[in-house]
Amino acid sequence: MQGGKAVATKDLELIGITRRFGEFVALDGIDLEVGQGEFVAIMGPSGCGKTTLLRIMAGLESTTSGRMLVKGRDLAAVPIHRRPTRLVWQDYALFPHLNVFDNIAFGPRLGPHVPSELRKKVLEMADLVSLEGLLDRRISQLSGGQKQRVALARAIITEPEILLLDEPLSALDAHLRIRMQGELRRLQQALGISFIYVTHNQNEAFSMADRVAVLNKGRVEQVGTPEAIYHHPSSRFVAQFVGMNNLFSGKVATVSEHYTEIASDNGPIRAVTGSKSPRIGETVHVVVQADKIKRATAHTSNENRINAILRGREFAGSHNVYLFDLPNGNEIKIVSEDEPGSPPEKLSGSPSDLYFSVRDAFIIGFQ
């Protein structure tokens, strides 16, 4: 308690955020909380509503219904320029007629800063984002990574309570993108403020975020740590969107304390029985990660076996991705770290015996 008032424990609360455009529902009752100084990534396919949600947080888009609280304060009546949020655009939205210094200083010049204080603050921001020595350069003279840093400095110099980022790395090449991921995470920890980062790239989300929110068709499918989202997807959509998972569908045949047996089109599959058991006869999905399925001639009693036809191989540098056709016509993928220099396998359509452990299979899709 401070001064008799409760201190807000959350930087952001979205409560039932809904946005309709005529008959189209872009966002459908979004609930999301961001803790103090948390890095949250909002991830989903194109058209899922993530950019609309970010624009609502920035004050650029209105809601049809719902509330948005920043540190317990309702922002419904707060104009954009007075909101404690700043948005870093996908294309950076820098001013080409201004140099780096003036781009960074643009926001504070709208406020009550005197020139000497402003110059000191711009120099501090330039140091924070590694732009020393570039303050006199024109925007056209900068690389993609340098433009990204200018956009960040221009946003954070205004001391926002929450920084919003709309796919800011999408225009960068792969090498620079990876480097900037580390710099963004370092910057967020140095500032100690919440970052909300919109992306369709799961590698970006998983490498930086404390938690990830997965959106689909305007709804939140799952919120959790990167590890929880990757290893334990809670819905069919998340399982297919995240990582490289294989799904087998069928009806529950038997349930025991240790495992549940599912009757699928590809034969019986046994999966771990979790804390909550499905009902016999219920239709469920079994999720198995691509690196958990193996090919071998010897099997144990604790393994699932599936017959498949080898169809193709994708070389991915440190590993290979093998594609198989199942008897029911579905496709599955296997990730294999083959021996260096081993010749690629002939894709002759030969049958293969596949297996995976019961402990590597888990069930989703039941109530």
UniProtKB/TrEMBL annotation:
Gene3D superfamilies: 2.40.50.100, P-loop containing nucleotide triphosphate hydrolases. The keyword Transport applies. Residues 12-242 form the ABC transporter domain. Keywords: ATP-binding, Nucleotide-binding, Transport. It is a peripheral membrane protein. One of its GO terms (molecular function) is ABC-type transporter activity. GO terms for cellular component: ATP-binding cassette (ABC) transporter complex. Pfam families: ABC_tran. It is found in: Cell inner membrane. Its main location: membrane. Belongs to the ABC transporter superfamily. This is ABC-type Fe3+/spermidine/putrescine transport system ATPase subunit. It comes from Mycoplana dimorpha. The lineage of its organism: Bacteria, Pseudomonadati, Pseudomonadota, Alphaproteobacteria, Hyphomicrobiales.
